Amino acid sequence: MQRIPGRRAAAAVGGSLALVLSQSPGMAIALPGIPAVVAGSVAEARECAVPGTGPGLHSGIPTPEGYSPTRGTVSALTLFVDFPDAEAQITTEERLAEFFPATSEYFAASSYGALDYRPAPVHGWLRMPQPFEAYGIDRGVGWHPGDPQGYNRLMHDIVAALDRAAGEGGSGTGGTGGTGDRDGTPVRDGTGARADNPAPDSPAAAGTSAPAPPAAEDADTAATAAGTVAAPGTAPGTATAAGDGRGVELAAADVDFSAHDLVNVLAAPNAGPPAVEKVLSVSFPGRPLIPTATGPLHNVSFIWSSQPGHTPHRVLVHENGHAFGLPDLYWTGEGPSPELTGHWDVMEQDWGPSNDILAWHKWKMGWLTDGEVDCVPGPGVTEHTITPLGSAATAAHHPAPAAPEPAVGVGTGLTAAPGTDAPRTRLVTVPLGPSEVLTLEVRAPSELDEAVCRPGVLLARVDTHRPSGEGPVRVVDATPGSDGCLELPDPQVTPGLSDAPHRPGETFRDEEAGVSVEVTGVDADGNHTVRVTRW
User: Fold this and answer.
1) N or C: which end of the chain has fewer CB within 10 A?
2) Are residues 81 and 58 in the same domain?
3) 390-407 tens-digit pLDDT
4) Distance between CA atoms of 439 and 374, rounded to whole angstroms?
5) Do residues 223 and 266 share a domain?
6) Angle (CA) 354 71 121, round 5°
7) Residue 4 lies in a domain
8) What is the pLDDT of residues 450-486, one digit of tens each?
9) Does residue 334 belong to any structural domain of this protein?
10) Which domain holds residue 479?
11) How high is the mean pLDDT of the chain?
């Protein structure tokens, strides 16, 4: 299997942690003057919600304004584009099926039902007026207002093509193309055979400077676009199949950008290089982009090529993670990349076997409630029983909100209904400074965590002041220097961190930070008990 190349561009360890971390399995902690052991949290959860800095992507809580909501119903306008030099060889329904219903199901499982993610596809390929190469799209290309090419030009062309499709009435046959261009020349019907090349793709976040774009070609060519057609027997804008995870189809004329929380642009898979050669997928979240008649484009994700493997939808999960305010956890700094989070969060590795999202980020997005977070802000000894992150939650723990809530995971105050079980602890937080927190969670094989080969307590250092791509989260490895625990090593999984969780009898100790974590036991359901000592 080919390894998907990095977004993971290598970097200097110059930004390494200031604190020296060490593990001493089985070491007992004996300190004078320690008060009696306290069971569970010793402070309100929000006291451990370490904030970030600035409006950009970071791991701090709360998430700044401008990003998509993360609870309740979220609508994702989904558009399809191809190019004169890269006409789509598949239908838009086939392209949509690469991501849905799998993406909606992923978010439902990871959020314990808190997020109802609904795509709103406008079927039909929107033909761009320029060849793909003319836009100058490359890895790391950002969005710059006033740029005559690049993503600025591409977004304007998409909006113009959508307007044109709306004016033409959107006749066609179920998203295969079918309308003519302005002079009546038919657009190809889009029903050609699916491309055989490994449909590859992985997400990358925007931000690096773009190379000088090539000169525009055919700049005056009119964009042609197919509209959408509802399923037979339904009206445009109605649901094609209730509960099928594919959302509600829209006609081009019905598109109102202000009615959607984010926008997904799915390019024809044959536009640009395969993702195993170069990763182009990118997001532009948290701020308004170009204006339209119905509000500005905002929280836009572009998906290029197709990702190989049995979970190709996770490229979209990663990119939409940015729309939800999550940073990139892979390294984009200078020099060789240090080990960061590996396969423990889709915001670092979104290829290979499925993986879930770190508990801290779930709390940030409101998928873990305050009642599921233990906070240990000061000296003392506390004991905690932590439920595996992938265990299902009861409806009482995550009641469906009556209306979408802000994308802030702190201060929700959700509690179990009278007569039901209290929320179970899934995250223990130990603040170590104004921007640093040590987190504890239990990871075990589950629906979204396919590759977990060493179940146990996963510790991570979160620095909310570190920007996206510069290591805001670093997993604490219980077995530093090992080759991992996968029986059959997967080239898409960082091997050295696959056995990072701590198991019963093992202790993490950081003298400088004044904290130790001892894993004291595990029950038949995988719930782990830990003792946290602070001095």
Assistant:
1) N
2) no
3) 998 755 455 554 433 333
4) 10
5) yes
6) 70
7) no
8) 999 999 999 999 999 999 999 999 999 999 999 999 9
9) no
10) 34-64+343-391+423-535
11) 80
Structure tokens at 343: 């396969």
How far, in Å, are 101, 108, 367 from residue 243 at the CA level? 9, 12, 21
| Residue closest to 261 by CA, chosen among 146, 141, 115 | 115
The pair phi, psi for residue 130, each rounded to 5°, is -115, 155
Euclidean distance between CA atoms 368 and 412, whole angstroms = 9
Q: Tell me the sheet residues that pair with 44.
A: none
- Pair 59, 83 in one domain: no
Give DSSP secondary structure letters for 210-243.
PPPPPPPSSTTPPP-B----PPTTS-TTSBSSTT
* Paired sense of beta strands 380-386 and 427-431, if any: unpaired
For 281, phi then psi, to 5°, come to -55, 145
Which amino acid appears at position 37 of this protein? V
Strand runs (DSSP E) across 390-447, as ranges? 427-431, 436-443
Instruction: For residue 414, give both structure tokens.
Output: 């959700």
Residue 352 has a CB neighbour count (10 Å cut-off) of 23
Q: How many other C-beta atoms lie within 10 A of the C-beta of residue 495?
A: 16
Q: Check whether residue 173 and residue 129 sit in a common domain.
A: yes
Selection from 405, 390, 394, 344 nearest residue 371 by Cα: 394
Specify the residue for token string 């993490």: 508
- Cα 504 to Cα 337: distance, rounded to the nearest angstrom: 30
The rounded radius of gyration (Å) of the Cα atoms in the chain is 24
What is the tens place of the pLDDT at every residue in 54-104? 889 999 999 999 999 999 999 999 999 999 999 999 999 999 999 999 999
The answer to whether residues 56 and 117 belong to one domain is no
Question: Are 363 and 510 found together in one domain?
Answer: yes
**Residue 2 counted as domain residue:** no
Residue 150 phi/psi, 5-degree rounding, is 65, -155
Q: Which residues pair with 427 in a beta bridge?
A: 373
What torsion, rounded to 10 degrees, do the Cα atoms 52, 58, 59, 62 define?
A: 50
Assess contact for 271 and 132: CB atoms under 8 A. yes
Strand partners, 284: 300
Cα–Cα distance between 323 and 312 in angstroms, integer? 19
Cα–Cα nearest to 3, from 398, 468, 349, 444: 349
pLDDT of 276 strictly over 60: yes
* Total Cβ atoms within 10 A of residue 252: 26
Q: Is residue 7 part of a domain?
A: no
* The total number of structural domains that make up the chain: 2
Give yes or no for a cis peptide into 35 (omega within 30° of 0): no
Q: Which helix (H) or strand (E) holds 531?
A: strand 528-534
Same domain, 432 and 466: yes
